[in-house]
């Protein structure tokens, strides 16, 4: 595994992973293959282009476009595909599910076909704890039944099952990681932590869905990247590995940490109409990955504080996004009525 095609590498976790891999492995060549949707941004990779120009290439392409996928695999003599490319925001999946099914299910199929056709050494799928559905008690292990409840998580589940089908049917060399909520640099400010941090900086209300007692395992993105790295190098083929801190915060606890870090009052919290079908709690058992020697370096609380500080120090990155028409129209559609009610 030396020539990686990292699909979705211009997005949040993908761009952090690209930087991590190029820094850690001086003999790896990385091709980022990305459609550049609203969430994929060249500025996420600006320093990578400057620092690693001889070991890095970018291809603008859709994972659903088999011809361009195949041409890229051949041109760059790719031996490994790591698939981060997806539509990723649950609220958007409730607005227009079609693109989720297209990219997260059909796109995964296209990449698996390329893996099979060119006899690649590895296909790794980046999946999510949301495929287990809400977990009111206990923790999800990798063999648990899948019970997705949103168009996003149902699409991700379809992708996972397709990966496992290619392993069972043709022995494709696949692995899957299922991560909890990632936070850190370059996360599009539609996800709750960057949304709340940037709203707090601007003295805008923080729209907490429902009672705010839903629980999430907020992990720092580089801990997740290390987990993926460990699975790539030590994981068993055909296996699934959960990645998270193994603890949770309620959304209200997370919000209080954001506000305390920015130094803004809790009066900015505004409870608004809940997300339809809102999963109450996700909780992962991460002992399988720990068994490969991996440990997270941040608690949820440390991850929230560190992430909030990054947004305080990097307005250059998020201010143009939030000032753009695309973001403003999404924000109005998702929050205007809720915040007025
Ligand atoms: P993101 O939305 O920030 O980035 C997604 C990237 O995929 C973007 O660069 C986008 O341009 C690209 N993309 C979308 N459709 C594409 C297509 N058809 N072809 C090529 N590129 C396409 O997402 P993220 O938060 O970085 O998530 C990355 C992966 O990790 C996803 O598979 C997601 O399901 C998974 N995941 C995310 C989290 C999280 O908390 N963010 C947690 C667990 C798993
Ligand atoms: O669990 C992993 C998943 O985490 C990933 O697979 C997804 O790609 C990622 O988007 C994330 O999904 P969530 O729905 O958990 O994340 P989000 O940031 O949208 O919401 C986190 C929690 O905060 C959730 O309980 C909903 C709540 N929330 C979210 C927003 C955007 C609010 O209360 N208000 C908000 O405005």
Feature tags:
341 residues, alpha/beta, UDP-galactose 4-epimerase, domain 1, 2 domains, two-stranded parallel ribbon, 13 helices, 13 strands, 45% helix, 16% strand, globular, binds nicotinamide-adenine-dinucleotide
Walk me through this protein's architecture.
The structure is a single chain. The protein is of the alpha/beta class and 341 residues long. The protein has two domains: 3-183 and 220-243, Rossmann fold, CATH 3.40.50; 192-215 and 250-281 and 299-340, UDP-galactose 4-epimerase, domain 1. It contains 13 helices and 13 strands. The strands form four sheets. Strands 3-2-1-4-5-6-11 form a seven-stranded parallel β-sheet, with helices on both faces. A two-stranded parallel sheet has the order 7-10. Helix 6 links the parallel strand 5 and strand 6 (174-179). 2'deoxy-thymidine-5'-diphospho-alpha-D-glucose (DAU) binds at residues 88-90, 128-130, 180-181, 191-192, 195, 207-209, 214, 216, 251, 275, 282.
CATH topology of the largest domain: Rossmann fold
The total number of structural domains is 2
Compressed to H and E, one letter per element, the order equals EHEHEHEHHEHEEHEEEHEEHEHHHH
Average pLDDT, all residues: 98
Broad shape: globular
Radius of gyration: 19 Å
Oligomer: single chain
Bound ions, cofactors and other small molecules, one mention each: nicotinamide-adenine-dinucleotide, 2'deoxy-thymidine-5'-diphospho-alpha-D-glucose
CATH architecture of the largest domain: 3-Layer(aba) Sandwich
- For the termini, the CA-CA separation is 53 Å
């Amino acid at each position: 595994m030396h020539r990686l095609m990292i699909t979705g590498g211009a997005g949040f976790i993908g761009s952090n992973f690209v930087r991590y891999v190029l820094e850690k492995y001086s003999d790896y060549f990385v091709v980022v293959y990305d459609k550049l949707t609203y969430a994929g941004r060249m500025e996420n990779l600006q320093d990578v282009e400057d620092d690693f120009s001889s070991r890095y290439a970018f291809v603008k392409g859709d994972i659903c476009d088999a011809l361009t996928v195949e041409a890229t695999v051949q041109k760059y003599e790719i031996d490994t595909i790591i698939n981060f490319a997806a539509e990723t925001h649950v609220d958007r999946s409730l607005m227009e599910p079609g693109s989720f099914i297209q990219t997260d299910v059909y796109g995964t199929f296209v990449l698996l076909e390329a893996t099979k056709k060119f006899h690649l050494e590895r296909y790794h799928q980046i999946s999510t704890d949301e495929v287990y559905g809400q977990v009111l008690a206990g923790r999800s292990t990798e063999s648990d039944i899948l019970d997705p409840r949103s168009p996003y998580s149902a699409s991700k589940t379809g992708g996972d099952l397709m990966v496992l089908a290619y392993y069972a049917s043709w022995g494709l060399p696949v692995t899957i990681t299922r991560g909890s909520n990632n936070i850190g640099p370059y996360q599009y400010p539609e996800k709750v932590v960057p949304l709340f941090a940037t709203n707090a900086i601007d003295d805008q209300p923080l729209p907490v869905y429902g009672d705010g007692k839903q629980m999430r395992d907020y992990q720092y993105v580089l801990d997740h990247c290390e987990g993926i790295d460990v699975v790539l190098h030590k994981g068993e083929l055909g296996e699934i590995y959960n990645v998270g801190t193994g603890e949770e915060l309620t959304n209200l606890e997370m919000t209080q940490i954001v506000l305390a870090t920015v130094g803004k009052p809790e009066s900015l919290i505004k409870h608004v109409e809940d997300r339809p079908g809102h999963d109450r709690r996700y909780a992962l058992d991460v002992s399988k990955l720990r068994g490969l020697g991996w440990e997270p370096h941040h608690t949820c609380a440390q991850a929230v504080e560190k992430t909030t500080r990054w947004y305080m120090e990097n307005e250059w990155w998020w201010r143009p996004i939030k000032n753009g028409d695309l973001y403003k129209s999404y924000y109005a559609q998702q929050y205007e009525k809720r915040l007025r009610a």
